UniProtKB/TrEMBL annotation:
<keyword id="KW-0456">Lyase</keyword>
<dbReference type="InterPro" id="IPR011780">
    <property type="entry name" value="D_Ser_am_lyase"/>
</dbReference>
<dbReference type="GO" id="GO:0008721">
    <property type="term" value="F:D-serine ammonia-lyase activity"/>
</dbReference>
<dbReference type="InterPro" id="IPR050147">
    <property type="entry name" value="Ser/Thr_Dehydratase"/>
</dbReference>
<comment type="similarity">
    <text>Belongs to the serine/threonine dehydratase family. DsdA subfamily.</text>
</comment>
<keyword id="KW-0663">Pyridoxal phosphate</keyword>
<dbReference type="InterPro" id="IPR001926">
    <property type="entry name" value="TrpB-like_PALP"/>
</dbReference>
<dbReference type="Pfam" id="PF00291">
    <property type="entry name" value="PALP"/>
</dbReference>
<dbReference type="InterPro" id="IPR036052">
    <property type="entry name" value="TrpB-like_PALP_sf"/>
</dbReference>
<dbReference type="GO" id="GO:0036088">
    <property type="term" value="P:D-serine catabolic process"/>
</dbReference>
<feature type="domain" description="Tryptophan synthase beta chain-like PALP">
    <location>
        <begin position="95"/>
        <end position="396"/>
    </location>
</feature>
<dbReference type="InterPro" id="IPR000634">
    <property type="entry name" value="Ser/Thr_deHydtase_PyrdxlP-BS"/>
</dbReference>
<dbReference type="GO" id="GO:0016836">
    <property type="term" value="F:hydro-lyase activity"/>
</dbReference>
<dbReference type="GO" id="GO:0009097">
    <property type="term" value="P:isoleucine biosynthetic process"/>
</dbReference>
<protein>
    <recommendedName>
        <fullName>Probable D-serine dehydratase</fullName>
        <ecNumber>4.3.1.18</ecNumber>
    </recommendedName>
</protein>
<dbReference type="GO" id="GO:0030170">
    <property type="term" value="F:pyridoxal phosphate binding"/>
</dbReference>
<feature type="modified residue" description="N6-(pyridoxal phosphate)lysine">
    <location>
        <position position="120"/>
    </location>
</feature>
Length: 446
């Protein structure tokens, strides 16, 4: 369904936030219809058991992963990232925005996830492992009790070689699917949108992955990938817009985060709310994490999505309740952003409907601001991220502007750093320089 021009005018009257989206101003949408998780849970198509099953599957594969990816040796084949305090960055934010931030500021370091240095190492790798396990079980090559190191064998690789995995991606998902699929022996085709960075395509090709490039955006790459895959019965398409497996892979993070918070003696309860800020592209990553967190903490956790001002697809879908029936192009936006992981014009309808009702809100952030935060995080904490991963960093400033001091007094804020450690040095430097420049113009303007 296309939204016509005159509809946009009417929509804007009903949902004034659209006007701010069209003007590319940074804005925050607070969910006016937020439901209690206990109520909403009964209507959800996925359960806590599904997340636990996903966790067990990752446990079964841990010995295999430890074998084939030596960087996971330390965590015994569990793909997990640290949770750390970033007090110096907190002071920076407070001083630049002249805004006190109540509560502690933590960073979830998914940019440091082994294998591919982005949050996609959760969902993407999980979905391929699930598919490989299903195939092996179906062909009587495996039972759940086996030692999964048997996946690292000529027999398994030859078997998987008959199958092709395909995926549409702006870069990071393709990178993950490509790396794990090639390791297992699958043939892989990645359909890449125009936003995908050259180094990501080069890296994939070096691993024997077929990369098909499109001059169009992410939605088109997914659509084409889906279409081509449907013609090949031996091809499995990882559907980023609708996949429950990806979603569950992301959700497992919450079980582990809960343990990390407990180990750090961080309290989460009614009087100690947990605020989590998640960069959002199509929605699977942040949606899956938010779902897992809601299962762990119910209404004591408050989740916000963050998107570029040029690509606020989830905010638009949620605010209008039109989900994937509307795109940012429909309201005249270009979906062009340096935050390649978030360059998505049309959100996942599945995610919006599953997690939307229990989200606290969603906000937008400009490319310049992401770069400023990137440079500030590098300077203050020595942590280097890719621009997408900074979208969450405005969250604590924003909630402290919007909510009462009383609400936030005993709060903990977690900014989810979604990617960055694989970015080549020269490009990291470019991002940083751009951030420094944007900081200078920020200070000159104020
Ligand atoms: C993909 C990605 C996201 C967002 O995940 P979605 O599932 O697309 O919403 C955020 N940050 C980075 C770095 C990503 O690669």
């Amino acid at each position: 369904m296309e939204i016509e021009k005159y509809d946009v005018v009417r929509l804007t009257e009903t949902f004034p936030v659209i006007k701010e989206l069209i003007q590319l101003t940074e804005t925050c949408w607070m969910n006016p219809n937020k439901q209690s998780f206990q109520l909403h849970k009964q209507k959800m198509p996925l359960t806590e058991q599904d997340v636990k099953d996903a966790e067990s599957r990752l446990d079964r594969f841990a010995p295999y992963l430890q074998n084939v990816f030596p960087e996971t040796k330390e965590t015994k084949g569990i793909i997990e990232s640290p949770l750390i305090a970033i007090p110096t960055m907190k002071s920076r934010l407070e001083s630049r925005f002249s805004q006190q931030i109540e509560g502690e500021l933590l960073l979830k370091c998914d940019h440091d996830l082994p294998i591919s240095g982005s949050i996609k190492a959760r969902g993407g790798i999980y979905e391929i492992l699930k598919y490989a396990e299903d195939l092996a079980i179906k062909h009587n090559m495996l039972s759940f009790e086996d030692d999964y190191r048997k996946f690292d064998s000529e027999k398994f690789r030859l078997f998987f070689q008959q199958y092709t995995i395909a995926v549409g991606s702006t870069g990071n998902l393709g990178l993950n699917i490509g790396i794990i699929s090639a390791k297992l022996g699958f043939q892989v085709t990645v359909h890449m949108s125009a936003d995908a960075k050259q180094w990501k395509k080069d890296l994939l090709r070096s691993k024997g992955v077929t990369v098909i490039e499109y001059t169009d955006d992410y939605s088109k790459a997914v659509e084409e990938g889906r279409k081509q895959s449907s013609l090949d019965p031996m091809c499995y398409f990882v559907d980023d817009e609708n996949s429950k497996h990806l979603f569950l892979g992301y959700a497992v993070s919450a079980i582990r985060l809960k343990k990390q918070l407990a180990a750090m003696k961080v309290k989460v309860d009614k009087n100690h709310p947990l605020f989590v800020y998640l960069p959002c592209g199509v929605g699977g990553g942040p949606g899956g994490v938010a779902f897992g967190l809601k299962l762990m903490y119910g209404d004591d956790v408050r989740c916000f999505f963050a998107e570029p001002t040029h690509a606020p697809c989830m905010l638009l879908g949620l605010a209008t309740n039109l989900h994937d029936k509307i795109s940012v192009q429909d309201i005249g936006l270009d979906n062009i952003t340096e935050a390649d992981g978030l360059a998505v014009g049309r959100p996942s309808g599945f995610v919006g409907q599953v997690i939307g009702p229990v989200l606290e809100g969603s906000y937008t952030i400009s490319d310049d601001e992401m770069h400023r935060l990137l440079a500030e995080l590098a300077d203050s904490e020595g942590i280097e991220l890719e621009p997408s991963a900074l979208a969450g960093m405005m969250g604590p400033v924003m909630t402290n502007r919007q909510l009462s001091r009383q609400t936030l007094e005993h709060a903990t804020h977690i900014v989810w750093a979604t990617g960055g450690s694989m970015v080549p040095l020269a490009i990291k430097k470019e991002y940083y320089e751009k951030g420094k420049l944007a900081l200078r113009s920020f200070y000159n303007a104020t």
